[in-house]
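Technical note accompanying the year-one report. For the benefit of new consortium partners, we illustrate the data format agreed upon in the data management plan: each record pairs a sequence with a structure-token string. No post-processing was applied to the example shown here.
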Amino acid sequence: MSAHLRLPARITACLFDLDGVLTRTAEVHAAAWKQTFDAFLRRRGAGELARPFDADRDYGEYVDGRPRVDGVRAFLDARGITLPEGTPEDAASAETVHGLARRKNELVRALIASDGVKAYEGSVRFLAAARDAGLACALVTSSENATAVVDAAGLAHMFAATVDSTVAHTLGLAGKPAPDVFLEAARRLGVEPADAAVFEDALAGVAAGRAGAFGLVVGVDRVGRGAELRATGADIVVDDLAELLSER
């Protein structure tokens, strides 16, 4: 028995975020951000200034879905902390925006290397059904580790195009919540935004899908943020992509 996609008839392409939509790596990123920021905040002082990073609220509001340095800037700005920008070559120990970003990425890579990567079973089924139905699929992620993650999860063969942080940097594309990376993915697939569906678990990603006037923006709610995803612009919200499949 084959699976039928419950998508609008005009949709001919699917643009997928990675962490939290396809793979169980959002919690890895949240843990790495918390470890990075908590250590930094403890060094800054006591009391409110050292209030720990909230792996649910702060992660969702400031860093989830954004390019890593943008996430550092957004969180520090929310806490009223100013740091030198530094450069991408800064060491992980540097007290700069880029230094914190590097520290976080080193922690993520270590966690992935030690624990591996698991894909959501419902997402794998949906991806397979989309390909079987002839829909073009692209990966759209702010991650620098996308290649390693999809390889580890066995998903690399599923995508006709990938727009990750390396591509965005090379082309000078603004990160989510700007729609640029999704628009570039649609261009690479040869489809109009109105004919493509965006799948995102991050508020910034949903905002990007809405800003790009895509035909469908699907919010994937893994942590109880359904109302926020809808308010940010999701057309529909699901707990798992398997909800968009029906057997026939």
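Partners are asked to follow this layout when depositing records. DSSP finds ten helices and eight strands in the chain.
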